[in-house]
Specification:
The protein is mostly helical. Helix content is 44%, strand content 3%. The protein has ten helices and three strands. Helix 1 runs antiparallel to helix 3 and helix 8 runs antiparallel to helix 9. It starts with 23 loop residues before the first helix and ends in a 54-residue tail after the last strand.
C-alpha cells in the first residue's frame, strides 16, 4: 500500500531528451532517471524499500532486488463492502479503512504509471516507439516497463562503433570551471557502458587516458607528474581520484589567492595623471600609466598582465593597449582595476609560448 496523496515530485522532470536514434548510452541515462523517479514515490508493497520501481522492472528482476518479496499491483476492490450486522465499531472502522486504502493505492499506482509513460513519450522521438502504439487506443494499454524494454532490446544493443566512441570519451578535455565531481561521473558512465558491452575498461587504462588528457590540456601538471611515479599496483581509481581531488583543491586555492593578489597589487600601482593637463593629454597618460604592471601571483612565480579582449595573461607585451588580436569593441585603456566591460577570465598559461604576445585561443589552468 502507498501513501494516499504523494506529490509525484520526480527528481528528474523532465527526462533528458534523446535526439535522433536511441543508443545504449542515451537509453542508460533515460533508464536511470526513470528508475529514480519511480522509486521516489513511496509504496509499502514489494518490501516497501523501492517505491514504485516495480512499474519498470520485470517481475524476476524485482524479486532479486526485493529479496524475494513480490510487488503485487493494486486492483480495484469493487463496491463498498457490506459490513456484517454483528461487526463491532472497531471492525467496521477497519473494514472501511482497508477499502479506502486499496482505492488510494490504485490511484497512486495509476498516476505514477501514467506520469512515467508521459515522460518517456516526451523524451523519445515517436518514431522509435510507434511500433507499440495501438490504432485506436494509442499507448493507453501499454505499460511503462513494456515501452522501456522495447527501447532497450531494439536500440540498446551496444555496437562495436559505440564501444569505440565511448572509450574515446575518456580523452575528452575536462572543463576546469566545472566541479571535479562532474569528471568522476563522466568516467563512471563511460566505464559502465563499456562493461555493458562486454568490453570493460580497467583502472590502469582509465587512469592512463585521464593522465594523457590532463597533460595535453596543461591541467594539474604537478599532480599528474607525481602520480606517474607511483608503482603499478597503486594505479587504482580510488587512489587516483583522491590525488586529483586534492590537486584540484590546491589549483582552486591558487586561483583564488592569485586573483586577490593581482587586484590588490594593480590597484596600488595606478598613478593618476598630473594636474593641469588637457583632457587629451590626461587620457594619453592614463592609457600608458594604467596599463597593469607585472603582478606576481602564486602560480609558479609568473608575472601576469591584463588585456580587455583576453583577460589576464603572462605576456608582458600583451596588454589592452598593445594587443594585436583585438575583439570587437576592444578598449585600449582598460586595466584590471577598471575593466570597462572587458574579459574577466583569469587563466594561467603553462608550457605555451606565443611569439606575437597574444594569448592562445584556449588557455588552460595548471596547479
Amino acid at each position: 500500500m502507498s501513501e494516499s496523496t504523494p506529490s509525484l515530485a520526480f527528481p528528474h522532470d523532465p527526462l533528458t531528451v534523446i535526439s535522433g536514434r536511441p543508443t545504449n548510452s542515451s537509453l542508460q541515462v533515460l533508464k536511470r532517471q526513470m528508475y529514480a523517479n519511480a522509486g521516489a514515490i513511496n509504496s509499502t508493497r514489494g518490501g516497501a524499500a523501492h517505491g514504485h520501481l516495480a512499474l519498470l522492472l520485470p517481475d524476476a528482476e524485482y524479486l532479486v532486488l526485493s529479496n524475494g518479496i513480490p510487488f503485487i499491483p493494486p486492483v480495484h476492490p469493487g463496491p463498498v463492502p457490506v459490513i456484517p450486522a454483528n461487526a463491532t465499531a472497531t471492525q467496521r472502522t477497519e473494514i472501511l479503512r482497508l477499502y479506502a486504502q486499496d482505492i488510494a493505492d490504485l490511484a497512486v499506482y495509476t498516476r505514477v504509471s501514467t506520469a512515467l509513460k508521459k515522460q518517456l513519450l516526451a523524451a523519445v522521438p515517436h518514431t522509435y516507439l510507434q511500433e507499440l502504439e495501438d490504432t485506436d487506443f494509442g499507448y493507453l494499454q501499454v505499460s511503462p516497463v513494456t515501452m522501456l524494454n522495447h527501447l532497450m532490446t531494439t536500440y540498446g544493443v551496444i555496437t562495436p562503433q559505440e564501444l569505440s566512441d565511448n572509450r574515446a570519451k575518456l580523452a575528452t578535455s575536462w572543463n576546469p570551471d566545472a566541479p571535479i565531481e562532474d569528471l568522476w561521473r563522466h568516467v563512471e558512465n563511460t566505464r559502465r557502458v563499456a562493461t555493458a558491452g562486454a568490453s570493460p575498461i580497467d583502472d590502469v587504462s582509465t587512469i592512463n587516458s585521464l593522465l594523457t588528457m590532463f597533460e595535453k590540456s596543461g591541467l594539474l601538471t604537478t599532480t599528474t607528474e607525481k602520480f606517474r611515479l607511483r608503482t603499478l599496483n597503486e594505479w587504482q581509481m580510488a587512489i587516483f581520484k583522491d590525488d586529483v581531488t586534492v590537486g584540484n583543491k590546491e589549483r582552486l586555492r591558487k586561483l583564488t589567492a592569485g586573483t586577490a593578489g593581482y587586484h590588490g597589487a594593480h590597484v596600488a600601482s595606478i598613478v593618476p595623471p598630473p594636474p593641469g593637463h588637457s583632457p587629451e593629454t590626461a587620457a594619453a597618460l592614463a592609457a600608458r600609466t594604467n596599463q597593469p604592471p607585472a603582478v606576481t601571483v602564486p602560480v609558479e612565480g609568473k608575472q601576469l598582465y591584463y588585456c580587455w579582449s583576453h583577460g589576464l595573461t603572462p605576456f608582458a607585451n600583451h596588454t589592452s593597449l598593445t594587443c594585436t588580436n583585438k575583439k570587437p569593441g576592444h578598449i585600449d585603456t582598460a586595466t584590471a582595476s577598471n575593466l570597462q566591460g572587458g574579459n574577466t577570465t583569469f587563466r594561467y598559461i603553462s608550457r605555451t609560448r606565443h611569439s606575437s604576445g597574444t594569448a592562445p585561443a584556449a588557455p588552460t589552468t595548471a596547479n
